[in-house]
Amino acid sequence: MNPLILTIILMTVFLGTMIVMASSHWLMIWIGFEMNLLAIIPILMKKYNPRAMEASTKYFLTQATASMLLMMAIIINLMHSGQWTITKVFNPTASIIMTLALAMKLGLTPFHFWVPEVTQGISLTSGLILLTWQKLAPMSILYQISPSINLNILLTMAVLSILVGGWGGLNQTQLRKIMAYSSIAHMGWMTAILVYNPTLTMLNMLIYIMMTLTMFMLFIHSSSTTTLSLSHTWNKAPLITTLILITLLSMGGLPPLSGFMPKWMIIQELTKNSSIILPTLMAIMALLNLYFYTRLTYSTSLTMFPSTNNMKMKWQFETKQITLLPPLIIASSLLLPLTPMLSILD
Amino acid sequence: MLKIIIPTIMLMPLTWLSKKNMIWINTTTYSLLISLISLSLLNQPNNNSLNFSLMFFSDPLSAPLLVLTTWLLPLMLMASQHHLSKEPLIRKKLYITMLAMLQTFLIMTFTATELISFYILFEATLVPTLIIITRWGNQTERLNAGLYFLFYTLVGSLPLLVALISIQSLTGSLHFLLIQYWNQALPDSWSNIFLWLACMMAFMVKMPLYGLHLWLPKAHVEAPIAGSMVLAAILLKLGGYGMLRITMMLNPQTNFMAYPFLMLSLWGMIMTSSICLRQTDLKSLIAYSSVSHMALVIVAVLIQTPWSYMGATALMIAHGLTSSMLFCLANSNYERTHSRTMILARGLQTLLPLMAAWWLLASLTNLALPPSINLIGELFVVMSSFSWSNITIILMGANITITALYSLYMLITTQRGKYTHHINSIKPSFTRENALMALHMTPLLLLSLNPKIILGFTY
Questions:
Q1: DSSP code of A226?
Q2: With CB atoms counted within 10 Å of each terminal CB, which end of chain B scores lower, N or C?
Q3: What's the rounded Cα separation, in Å, for the pair A118 and A45?
Q4: In chain A, which residue's Cα lies nearest the Cα of B116?
Q5: Is residue B206 one of the residues assigned to a domain?
Q6: How far is CA A30 from CA A16, A214, A316, in A?
Q7: How close, in Å, is residue A172 to chain B by CA atoms?
Q8: B93 within a domain of the structure (yes/no)
């Protein structure tokens, strides 16, 4: 794509999210969402093939529906409270509709069906933007309306998302679908704690974005989109295999890596609020996630499958420069000892 | 405590910066020096614990386990030299780094004061062990073994995390020293029963308890020698140590909650000992023997009398040394014949007489011959379980008999009789192997002279 056009489009995506996060008028938020949606469609369609068009269409339809639901919730809120300021939503109907709309945007169960298919149809870089940047705007709205969200709906969606994210990823070999199911599960964790302590939602979002960024950049570096091609990285760049191992185990939430920190904090907050069965259930369902990450590490770093001789020479394109990979690796694996610093957030 | 932890962490830069012909020498020497430093912890003057800082402490229970951990690292390094000799240098360094990382986490686990810090480090020991088993094991089954190991332990320990956090929110602190002093009886309710279960299941899986022991034969058999040594000698004892610490908070539910686990352990020790009599795979026999010995430790911890705690602690240390030595002996067979089948390597006494002496000593300590510390441990456990209920003496007596049977079966099959015709060209024993066995056996024999340092905090 022409660099000037690409810059303009990316700036529009950025501006859309910024408008959502920074405005105090409900209409501006809706405008921000629409701007974001319309500008990201060309990015999703960067590689012009039918699969990408199908993915972009699905994304557009679901997000537009969600925006319309959001608009309806805004209007109901306007009708009942008479003002457009962003505060907690006072009317329960409006609150429920808004929660469902934002869940559709995030990809929570039962609105998760678009995430794997859209992520699979687009290129790795577009998938990166989809799974990290696009989650920021809906999450910021959820953060702002968190005092009024109906707990039953949110917790049901969260627990079902963790279950679906874990179970759905078990049968996948395509890396983008694995990352999509991982995103569904992590969104479930984030929304589960939203009502009790929204700061932890932001913490989880931060660490999730760092880990997903790292994973995608490692995939982009080795240009691999399937488990099979990822298992050839021992040949091309052996250090990448170790990094993939560390980051995947961190995403699975194993101590002493930093992926454990959000899970630990969320379990702590939930337990302090006297719900004991819920965090136990969530933690055990996160083990499903860990299973398919471990399986991925088995094929990539921990074993070397028998390969024929001509497979050992992979096409060596010019090495893509990955910006910021070392700090991202450090951030996604070594942050656990900094957990006591979270006390400054109070 | 930092005087032990920081040198252990620094073992990792030591391996990466050493020259090719010095990696084994450097790491083995420095880890032996670290174990010398840790011996000073055995001097526990009064009944209280030695508190080094707010985060680390050592007590007559954790000090022997700590000394065992630091003693075992040089032995693991010595045992791994042969099977890693053909690997490229970077992979050797990675292996030693994994071992050093595991060692750091283990030392910090045994000396942690705060129970959540104990939990995080307990889980952290899983990652290097998983990598050692899966990356450096020898058969295809190691993938399955790694998965079973990881998931059995995690499913058991996630409820423990929730239970610890809920105890902290109810009582305010999980610092071990505070809990000792303002401990009070847990009220009787259904949720406290589940709390008891949540706290104990993690350690039951780790010990392992008889019904949850499926991961252990897989993991022990598929792991390389250093992995088997550390699994058998230390990681199982993490479960015992955790149980000994956490049962202090769980009274009076333990009085009735312990019954199912006591029954499972009493029955399980006989079952696993009997399975040992029919094993063809040498490492699998030693693995099941570990389950059987640990079942005794579970019985001792759940009975909660002073003598049983002494027996549990002594048995843990004794079994650590014995089991690790048996794995080293099995590995010396494996390196020569590349098979773990017992009958393929018979009659070794004729070919390797000095190794036969070590086999004899290891088998004798495994069957708890007097006056070794294995006997002291088992005897205390048998006596205290007899005082708890007279009928257990039948099961205990049967277990001791069957233990003797399979230990002697293992000894006679591998050492006595006519050697097979295909193994008359094996290499003679290396000095390194003899040194390894001597270094296992000497602490075991010397401790029989002064067992009170390993008898734990109820002495």
A1: B
A2: C
A3: 11
A4: A264
A5: no
A6: 10, 31, 45
A7: 18
A8: no
Question: Do A210 and A328 contact (CB within 8 A), yes or no?
Answer: yes
Q: Is A266:A192 a contact under the CB 8 Å cutoff? A: yes
**Which pLDDT does position A176 carry in this prediction?**
94
The chain A residue lying nearest B148, using CA atoms, is A291
Contact criterion met (CB below 8 Å) for B269 and B276? no
Q: What is the pLDDT of residue A312?
A: 61
Q: Residue B141: phi, psi to the nearest 5?
A: -70, -5
Q: SS3 sequence, B91-111?
A: HHHHHHHHHHHHHHHHHHHHC
Write the residue in B121, B154, B166 that is nearest to A276 by C-beta: B166
Nearest CA in chain A to B170: A272
* Least confident stretch, A220-234, B119-133, B270-284, B343-357: A220-234
Nearest CB to A254 within list B123, B134, B146: B123
pLDDT at position B97: 94
Residue B319 has pLDDT above 70, yes or no: yes
Interchain contact, B158 vs A294, CB within 8 Å: no
Instruction: Check residue B391 and give its pLDDT.
Output: 93
CA atoms within 13 Å, Cβ hemisphere of B64: 28
Residue-level pLDDT at A309: 58
B151 to A291: CB separation less than 8 angstroms, yes or no: yes
Interface check for A143 against chain B (CB to CB < 8 A): the answer is no
Domain count, chain B: 1
For chain A of 346 residues, list the mean pLDDT of each consecutive stretch of 10: 91 95 93 95 90 94 96 94 87 93 93 94 90 93 91 93 94 93 95 92 93 92 85 81 91 91 94 91 94 91 68 66 81 85 76
Residue B357 lies in a domain: yes
Give B262-297 as a DSSP string.
HHHHHHHHHHHHHHHHT--BHHHHHHHHHHHHHHHH
Question: Among residues A204, A96, A171, A98, which one has the least CA distance to residue A141?
Answer: A98
C-alpha A202/C-alpha A136 separation (Å) is: 9
Chain A hits for B132, Cβ within 8 Å: none
B440 contacts B324 by C-beta, under 8 angstroms: yes
Q: Provide the pLDDT for residue B447.
A: 92
For residue B366, being part of any structural domain is answered with yes
Share of chain B above pLDDT 90, in %: 69
B357 contacts B306 by C-beta, under 8 angstroms: no
Question: Closest chain A residue to B169 measured between Cα atoms?
Answer: A272
CA torsion sign, B103 to B105 to B108 to B110? negative
CA atoms of B401 and A73, how far apart (whole Å): 76
> Taking a C-beta distance cutoff of 8 angstroms, is the pair B45, B224 a contact?
no
Contact A244, A280 (CB under 8 A): no
Token digits of residue B230:
């550390």
* pLDDT computed for residue A310 by the predictor: 57
Of A257, A267, A294, the CB nearest to B165: A267
Q: Count CA within 13 A, CB hemisphere, residue B65.
A: 33
Smallest Cβ–Cβ distance between A280 and the set B130, B143, B158 belongs to B158
Q: Is A319 exposed, middle or buried (0-12, 13-18, 19+ CB in 10 A)?
A: exposed
Single-letter residue type at B65: L
Residue to substitute from A250, A265, A303, A304, interface B, most B β-carbons within 10 A: A303
Residue B31's alpha-carbon distances to B15, B27, B125, B324, B455, in angstroms, are: 12, 6, 18, 17, 25
pLDDT tens string B384-437: 999 999 999 999 999 999 999 999 999 999 998 888 888 778 888 999 999 999
> What's the domain range around B419?
267-458
Measure CB to CB from residue B162 to each of A245, A271, A294 and give the nearest one. A271
Query: Which residue of chain A comes nearest to B166, CA vs CA?
Result: A271
